[in-house]
């Protein structure tokens, strides 16, 4: 898929963000989106073809692969990137609504259309809460689906149609483990940044 839309979305919201929000955009773009496109996608590209079990029973490898990887790491990572970025659309739509309303009335209705205040502040806070929620949900999902944040070298499978317990192996487990840890660390960093920005905005405007 083309990630240009996501990049343009993040860049468009960047001018309405606080300093912390701009750091979040940089982290998502540099350490998540680019890493996904340049490196991670290629590592998991042929994961099903490179998954091997020490048996040639028809269907055994397929059911074992589906059991250990109900959702591909890389597809779940892509879905996470999309979901944590889409709340920014709320801010874009709100700003577009302001600009369209002023254009329709042919006068300035807002003191600072491009600043975070009033209704735009509420929209921005909601988008931050949604980002935090999506990040936590996907971290829990990764943990539950893969029995922790790890990529084992050897997996034992006894699911039918396998006639007995077979040993299954995945390719490049160490490399995949490194990228999985990187994914978890960057997700946690984004949660911290979003929480910091949320706290900063609430504290700043509650004082005002």
Automatic annotation (TrEMBL):
Compartment annotation: Cell junction, Gap junction; Cell membrane
GO molecular function: gap junction channel activity
Every Connexin N-terminal domain range: 42-75
Superkingdom of this protein's organism: Eukaryota
Any one of the GO CC terms: connexin complex
Membrane topology summary: Multi-pass membrane protein
Transmembrane segments: 21-39, 77-97, 118-143, 177-203
Domain named Connexin cysteine-rich: residues: 134-201
One Pfam family from the record: Connexin
Predominant localisation class: other
Entry-linked Gene3D superfamilies: Gap junction channel protein cysteine-rich domain
Any one Gene Ontology BP term: cell-cell signaling
UniProt keywords, alphabetically: Cell junction, Cell membrane, Gap junction, Membrane, Transmembrane, Transmembrane helix
InterPro entries per the UniProt record, alphabetical: Connexin, Connexin_CCC, Connexin_CS, Connexin_N, Connexin_N_sf
PANTHER family tied to this protein: CONNEXIN, GAP JUNCTION BETA-7 PROTEIN
Job description of the protein: One gap junction consists of a cluster of closely packed pairs of transmembrane channels, the connexons, through which materials of low MW diffuse from one cell to a neighboring cell.
Quaternary assembly: A connexon is composed of a hexamer of connexins.
UniProt family annotation: Belongs to the connexin family.
Name used for this protein in its record: Gap junction protein
Organism from which the protein derives: Merops nubicus
